[in-house]
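Help!! Second protein's tokens look totally different from the first
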Amino acid sequence: MDSAGDVGKEKPAQRAGRGRPRDTEKNASIVAAARALFLDHGYEGTSMDEVAKSAGVSKQTVYSHFSSKEQLFRAAVHRAIADAAPENAVKRVETHSLEADLTAVCEEYTRLLLSAEAIAVNNLVIAASAQGKAIPTIFWESGVREIQDNLEAFLQGWINSGDLTIAELDVAVEQIISLLKGKQHFMLSIGMQDTVTEEDIQKNVTNTVAAFLKLYRT
């Protein structure tokens, strides 16, 4: 799979191949198995053999979908981020408005950022950083940057409609993410807090939306 220098290049599993389509069900099973193993055993402690066994497929099948463990880690991170994408969040909004849609998106990302899985992956990446920059780079590109890009695209739509006025979109996105994490993310990361309550989530979201709209609503 990719080294740090390969990040951003087209991957074999991302190209439209000839012949029969990939087995998406097996692909999903492999990624799900890898996510669980990465969380339980860390990056270095997870092998492609274990992923194959857990997914109930052959090692050859795993490699037919993912050329290396790094590529599989990239896919696992991407899948988690894709589940919380803004377009999924706003589907549950009945009456669309800037505040309603922004609140839904912020709720989705707060639940993601403060989830046990996200904290575990964050700690996994910190541990892997001692081995080099490849894993932290993959996490940044397929995780953090993807969240930033998704939020920028979401906010751009409201800028285009005239509801928001934002001169530096990247800065505005960084502000949202920082506010959504609040102190809970740090407390969870260092083991000073085990879980977040629904009250914690709603408080973070309410404060974030109020502060953001005060700054940027046209």
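Here's the second one for comparison:
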Amino acid sequence: MVEKRGTHGLLAHVVMLLGVFIVAFPIFVAFTATTHTAQEIVQAPMPLWPGTNIYDSFHGALFGRATSAGSNAPVAHMMWVSFVTATVISIGKISISLLSAFAIVYFRFPFRKTCFWAIFITLMLPVEVRILPTYKVLSDLNMLNTYAGLTVPLIASATATFLFRQFFLTVPEELTEASRMDGASPMRFFFDVLLPLSKTSMAALFVIQFIYGWNQYLWPLLATTGEDMYPVVVGIKRMIAGGDSQNEWNVVMATAILAMLPPAIVVVGMQKWFVKGLVDTEK
């Protein structure tokens, strides 16, 4: 039986196409800017048809070009810093959250619920609130301008701990009893039973936390003191200095396009696991 959608279906498609256009048009403009020279971009109106300067723009972005008033650090190294930072933050958050949720759910110790709520309350203390004391601690430990300084302050996650706790509470008690009867130690139960069951949740959280780590701006802006440790998001801002005529906007836009690629690849590559982790958390 064919369902007749009428004007409602047509309106839904029009709204969807309008939304796609609103989201995609700035990306198209940024890509078009990479195909023109800096002089052509600052002309009014800016050309919206692709040019022939795309290789020079991306080559200048990836390997640096000392002709701009702003930062000239190679974007290839910035993207490596961002990739390492985002990966360490993602894996660290998941690992610590898994262990803390496992301890809260399966171990009986004094003030267990108090510990959980103490972790949960840290949601009200984002990086912006504790940024000054965190900076002071890292400065005293000589961790500024290092990978540890970029990742350690962001590696704990109350949200992930809460999500894993809620998932572990849905695991049948029979699995725990069966593992105990087989003589499995707590960590054996953790690695052989809980981790395989948590794969989809871990994948979904990895995507979210990777994008979170990749898009960090405020903390890296304070924690980095040299161009060799700029993540790409900070690098884009550092490349912009002075007036329009002093910036190579084609290189800046090429950097912005490159900065979008790794998160997009992670989302597309893990889309199946990401969706499954969000809809199957009750299983």
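Reply: Different proteins will give different token patterns, so don't panic. The mean pLDDT is 85.
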